[in-house]
Task: inverse folding
Protein backbone atom coordinates (compact mmCIF):
# COMPACT_ATOMS: atom_id res chain seq x y z
CA UNK A 1 0.00 0.00 0.00
CA UNK A 2 1.17 3.54 -0.76
CA UNK A 3 0.01 6.45 1.36
CA UNK A 4 -2.64 8.25 -0.68
CA UNK A 5 -4.34 11.64 -0.48
CA UNK A 6 -5.64 12.88 2.82
CA UNK A 7 -9.29 12.70 1.78
CA UNK A 8 -10.51 14.55 4.87
CA UNK A 9 -10.05 15.37 8.51
CA UNK A 10 -13.01 14.15 10.56
CA UNK A 11 -14.24 16.55 13.22
CA UNK A 12 -16.89 15.53 15.74
CA UNK A 13 -19.38 18.21 16.71
CA UNK A 14 -22.52 18.41 18.81
CA UNK A 15 -24.00 20.71 16.13
CA UNK A 16 -23.14 20.68 12.45
CA UNK A 17 -25.04 23.94 12.01
CA UNK A 18 -22.93 25.75 14.62
CA UNK A 19 -19.73 24.26 13.21
CA UNK A 20 -20.64 25.39 9.70
CA UNK A 21 -21.13 28.91 11.04
CA UNK A 22 -17.68 28.81 12.69
CA UNK A 23 -15.85 27.64 9.57
CA UNK A 24 -17.77 30.12 7.39
CA UNK A 25 -17.70 33.18 9.62
CA UNK A 26 -14.31 32.80 11.32
CA UNK A 27 -12.18 31.01 8.71
CA UNK A 28 -13.90 32.09 5.53
CA UNK A 29 -14.99 28.69 4.23
CA UNK A 30 -17.05 29.16 1.07
CA UNK A 31 -17.57 25.66 -0.34
CA UNK A 32 -19.82 23.95 2.16
CA UNK A 33 -21.85 20.89 1.23
CA UNK A 34 -25.39 20.19 2.40
CA UNK A 35 -25.43 18.07 5.56
CA UNK A 36 -26.77 14.56 5.05
CA UNK A 37 -27.62 11.53 7.16
CA UNK A 38 -25.74 8.23 7.14
CA UNK A 39 -28.10 6.27 9.40
CA UNK A 40 -26.29 2.97 8.79
CA UNK A 41 -23.21 4.57 10.36
CA UNK A 42 -25.15 6.46 12.99
CA UNK A 43 -23.94 9.87 11.89
CA UNK A 44 -24.98 13.04 10.12
CA UNK A 45 -22.15 14.56 8.13
CA UNK A 46 -21.22 17.69 6.20
CA UNK A 47 -18.14 18.28 4.04
CA UNK A 48 -16.37 21.63 3.94
CA UNK A 49 -13.84 22.06 1.12
CA UNK A 50 -10.41 23.55 1.45
CA UNK A 51 -8.45 23.99 -1.83
CA UNK A 52 -6.71 20.63 -1.33
CA UNK A 53 -8.86 18.47 0.95
CA UNK A 54 -11.99 18.49 3.10
CA UNK A 55 -13.12 18.80 6.69
CA UNK A 56 -15.87 16.29 7.52
CA UNK A 57 -18.16 17.52 10.28
CA UNK A 58 -19.76 14.59 12.11
CA UNK A 59 -22.76 14.83 14.39
CA UNK A 60 -24.41 11.87 16.15
CA UNK A 61 -27.44 10.58 14.28
CA UNK A 62 -28.92 9.14 17.49
CA UNK A 63 -27.87 8.11 20.99
CA UNK A 64 -26.43 4.84 19.68
CA UNK A 65 -24.08 6.77 17.39
CA UNK A 66 -20.46 5.61 17.42
CA UNK A 67 -19.43 9.21 18.10
CA UNK A 68 -21.80 9.73 21.04
CA UNK A 69 -19.11 8.40 23.39
CA UNK A 70 -16.52 10.75 21.91
CA UNK A 71 -18.78 13.74 22.50
CA UNK A 72 -19.48 12.62 26.05
CA UNK A 73 -15.74 12.87 26.72
CA UNK A 74 -15.34 15.98 24.54
CA UNK A 75 -18.63 17.90 24.77
CA UNK A 76 -17.40 20.78 22.60
CA UNK A 77 -16.34 18.38 19.86
CA UNK A 78 -12.85 17.91 18.45
CA UNK A 79 -10.65 16.09 15.99
CA UNK A 80 -12.01 12.58 15.54
CA UNK A 81 -10.12 10.86 12.69
CA UNK A 82 -8.02 11.32 9.57
CA UNK A 83 -8.95 9.63 6.31
CA UNK A 84 -6.37 8.55 3.75
CA UNK A 85 -7.22 7.25 0.29
CA UNK A 86 -6.10 3.82 -0.89
CA UNK A 87 -6.36 2.32 -4.37
CA UNK A 88 -7.90 -0.98 -3.24
CA UNK A 89 -9.58 -1.34 0.14
CA UNK A 90 -9.46 -5.14 0.24
CA UNK A 91 -5.76 -5.17 -0.53
CA UNK A 92 -5.18 -2.50 2.12
CA UNK A 93 -7.09 -4.48 4.75
CA UNK A 94 -5.21 -7.69 3.92
CA UNK A 95 -1.90 -5.83 4.05
CA UNK A 96 -2.66 -4.22 7.42
CA UNK A 97 -3.91 -7.45 8.94
CA UNK A 98 -0.81 -9.31 7.71
CA UNK A 99 1.25 -6.67 9.56
CA UNK A 100 -0.72 -7.19 12.76
CA UNK A 101 -2.94 -4.08 12.70
CA UNK A 102 -6.49 -4.23 14.02
CA UNK A 103 -8.95 -3.32 11.29
CA UNK A 104 -12.35 -2.46 12.77
CA UNK A 105 -15.01 -4.51 11.00
CA UNK A 106 -15.52 -5.17 7.31
CA UNK A 107 -15.27 -2.51 4.61
CA UNK A 108 -18.56 -0.65 4.16
CA UNK A 109 -19.72 2.15 1.90
CA UNK A 110 -18.63 5.52 3.23
CA UNK A 111 -19.71 9.11 2.85
CA UNK A 112 -18.24 9.44 -0.65
CA UNK A 113 -19.81 6.23 -1.97
CA UNK A 114 -16.71 4.06 -1.91
CA UNK A 115 -15.69 1.40 0.65
CA UNK A 116 -14.06 2.55 3.88
CA UNK A 117 -12.66 0.93 7.01
CA UNK A 118 -11.27 2.23 10.26
CA UNK A 119 -8.05 1.04 11.88
CA UNK A 120 -7.72 0.93 15.66
CA UNK A 121 -5.95 4.00 17.12
CA UNK A 122 -3.62 1.75 19.12
CA UNK A 123 -1.95 0.86 15.84
CA UNK A 124 -1.40 4.50 14.86
CA UNK A 125 -0.13 6.29 17.93
CA UNK A 126 -3.56 7.24 19.23
CA UNK A 127 -4.84 8.47 15.86
CA UNK A 128 -8.04 6.93 14.50
CA UNK A 129 -7.28 6.29 10.82
CA UNK A 130 -9.97 5.80 8.18
CA UNK A 131 -8.99 4.31 4.84
CA UNK A 132 -11.20 5.12 1.85
CA UNK A 133 -11.02 3.61 -1.60
CA UNK A 134 -10.31 6.62 -3.81
CA UNK A 135 -13.57 8.24 -4.91
CA UNK A 136 -13.89 8.70 -8.66
CA UNK A 137 -15.57 11.51 -10.50
CA UNK A 138 -15.24 13.94 -7.65
CA UNK A 139 -12.97 16.23 -9.57
CA UNK A 140 -10.17 16.06 -7.05
CA UNK B 1 -10.08 35.80 5.23
CA UNK B 2 -10.69 32.86 2.88
CA UNK B 3 -10.12 29.31 4.03
CA UNK B 4 -6.83 28.21 2.48
CA UNK B 5 -5.09 24.88 1.98
CA UNK B 6 -4.89 22.45 4.83
CA UNK B 7 -1.12 22.75 5.22
CA UNK B 8 -0.87 19.83 7.63
CA UNK B 9 -2.47 17.76 10.35
CA UNK B 10 -0.45 17.95 13.56
CA UNK B 11 -0.02 14.66 15.40
CA UNK B 12 1.57 14.50 18.85
CA UNK B 13 3.76 11.49 19.53
CA UNK B 14 6.03 10.32 22.32
CA UNK B 15 8.46 9.08 19.66
CA UNK B 16 8.88 10.52 16.17
CA UNK B 17 11.02 7.53 15.23
CA UNK B 18 8.30 5.03 16.14
CA UNK B 19 5.65 7.14 14.38
CA UNK B 20 7.76 7.32 11.22
CA UNK B 21 8.00 3.52 11.27
CA UNK B 22 4.19 3.25 11.59
CA UNK B 23 3.44 5.60 8.68
CA UNK B 24 6.13 3.97 6.54
CA UNK B 25 5.53 0.30 7.33
CA UNK B 26 1.74 0.27 7.81
CA UNK B 27 0.50 3.03 5.48
CA UNK B 28 3.26 3.07 2.90
CA UNK B 29 4.49 6.64 3.39
CA UNK B 30 7.50 7.22 1.17
CA UNK B 31 8.23 10.95 1.39
CA UNK B 32 9.41 11.47 4.96
CA UNK B 33 11.42 14.53 5.94
CA UNK B 34 14.31 14.51 8.38
CA UNK B 35 13.15 15.31 11.92
CA UNK B 36 14.35 18.68 13.21
CA UNK B 37 14.25 20.65 16.45
CA UNK B 38 12.29 23.84 17.02
CA UNK B 39 13.64 24.67 20.48
CA UNK B 40 11.91 28.08 20.55
CA UNK B 41 8.60 26.22 20.31
CA UNK B 42 9.66 23.37 22.55
CA UNK B 43 9.11 20.70 19.93
CA UNK B 44 10.90 18.33 17.58
CA UNK B 45 8.98 17.85 14.33
CA UNK B 46 8.97 15.72 11.21
CA UNK B 47 6.83 16.16 8.10
CA UNK B 48 5.42 13.20 6.19
CA UNK B 49 4.01 14.01 2.74
CA UNK B 50 0.76 12.73 1.32
CA UNK B 51 0.04 13.65 -2.32
CA UNK B 52 -1.98 16.70 -1.24
CA UNK B 53 -0.86 17.73 2.25
CA UNK B 54 1.37 16.72 5.14
CA UNK B 55 1.25 15.04 8.52
CA UNK B 56 3.39 16.88 11.08
CA UNK B 57 4.71 14.58 13.79
CA UNK B 58 5.42 16.52 16.98
CA UNK B 59 7.50 15.25 19.88
CA UNK B 60 8.25 17.25 23.03
CA UNK B 61 11.67 18.94 22.90
CA UNK B 62 11.88 19.00 26.69
CA UNK B 63 9.68 18.76 29.78
CA UNK B 64 8.56 22.37 29.36
CA UNK B 65 7.22 21.56 25.89
CA UNK B 66 3.73 22.86 25.13
CA UNK B 67 2.77 19.34 24.07
CA UNK B 68 4.05 17.62 27.22
CA UNK B 69 0.64 18.16 28.85
CA UNK B 70 -1.15 16.72 25.83
CA UNK B 71 0.97 13.56 26.01
CA UNK B 72 0.39 13.25 29.74
CA UNK B 73 -3.34 13.02 28.98
CA UNK B 74 -2.80 10.96 25.81
CA UNK B 75 0.34 8.87 26.41
CA UNK B 76 0.09 7.07 23.06
CA UNK B 77 -0.14 10.39 21.21
CA UNK B 78 -2.99 11.58 18.98
CA UNK B 79 -4.34 14.32 16.78
CA UNK B 80 -3.15 17.65 18.12
CA UNK B 81 -4.09 20.42 15.64
CA UNK B 82 -5.00 21.25 12.06
CA UNK B 83 -3.15 23.97 10.15
CA UNK B 84 -4.79 26.07 7.46
CA UNK B 85 -2.92 28.48 5.23
CA UNK B 86 -3.80 32.17 5.09
CA UNK B 87 -2.49 34.82 2.71
CA UNK B 88 -1.64 37.38 5.41
CA UNK B 89 -1.22 36.35 9.03
CA UNK B 90 -1.60 39.86 10.47
CA UNK B 91 -4.85 40.41 8.59
CA UNK B 92 -6.10 36.99 9.72
CA UNK B 93 -5.30 37.76 13.36
CA UNK B 94 -7.00 41.16 13.19
CA UNK B 95 -10.03 39.60 11.52
CA UNK B 96 -10.34 36.81 14.11
CA UNK B 97 -9.88 39.19 17.03
CA UNK B 98 -12.51 41.54 15.61
CA UNK B 99 -14.88 38.57 15.56
CA UNK B 100 -14.13 37.73 19.18
CA UNK B 101 -11.83 34.74 18.74
CA UNK B 102 -8.93 34.16 21.12
CA UNK B 103 -5.65 34.17 19.24
CA UNK B 104 -2.90 32.59 21.34
CA UNK B 105 0.06 34.96 21.41
CA UNK B 106 1.74 36.91 18.64
CA UNK B 107 2.58 35.43 15.24
CA UNK B 108 5.93 33.66 15.28
CA UNK B 109 7.98 31.82 12.67
CA UNK B 110 6.74 28.27 12.23
CA UNK B 111 8.10 25.00 10.95
CA UNK B 112 7.91 26.08 7.30
CA UNK B 113 9.62 29.44 7.84
CA UNK B 114 6.53 31.65 7.66
CA UNK B 115 4.55 33.23 10.51
CA UNK B 116 2.02 31.09 12.36
CA UNK B 117 -0.46 31.54 15.20
CA UNK B 118 -2.76 29.22 17.09
CA UNK B 119 -6.42 29.96 17.85
CA UNK B 120 -8.00 28.69 21.08
CA UNK B 121 -9.94 25.42 20.62
CA UNK B 122 -12.95 26.92 22.40
CA UNK B 123 -13.49 29.06 19.30
CA UNK B 124 -13.44 26.07 16.94
CA UNK B 125 -15.53 23.38 18.53
CA UNK B 126 -12.69 21.80 20.46
CA UNK B 127 -10.27 21.81 17.51
CA UNK B 128 -6.91 23.53 17.96
CA UNK B 129 -6.45 25.53 14.75
CA UNK B 130 -3.07 26.77 13.53
CA UNK B 131 -2.97 29.43 10.85
CA UNK B 132 0.15 29.63 8.69
CA UNK B 133 1.06 32.31 6.19
CA UNK B 134 1.32 30.37 2.93
CA UNK B 135 4.86 29.05 2.48
CA UNK B 136 6.45 30.00 -0.84
CA UNK B 137 8.80 27.94 -2.94
CA UNK B 138 7.64 24.66 -1.49
CA UNK B 139 6.19 23.48 -4.75
CA UNK B 140 2.76 22.89 -3.31
Result:
Amino acid sequence: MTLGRLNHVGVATPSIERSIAMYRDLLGATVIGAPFDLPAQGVRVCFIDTPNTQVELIEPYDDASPIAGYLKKNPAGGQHHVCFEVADIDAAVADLQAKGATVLGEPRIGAHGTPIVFVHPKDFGGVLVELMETPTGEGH
Notes: The helical segments of chain B are 16-25, 68-73, 89-98. Chain B touches chain A at residues 1-6, 9, 11-13, 18-19, 22-23, 25-30, 48, 50-53, 55, 74, 76-79, 81-82, 84, 96, 99, 101, 121-127, 129 (CB under 8 Å). The mean pLDDT of chain B is 94. The longest helix of chain B spans residues 16-25.
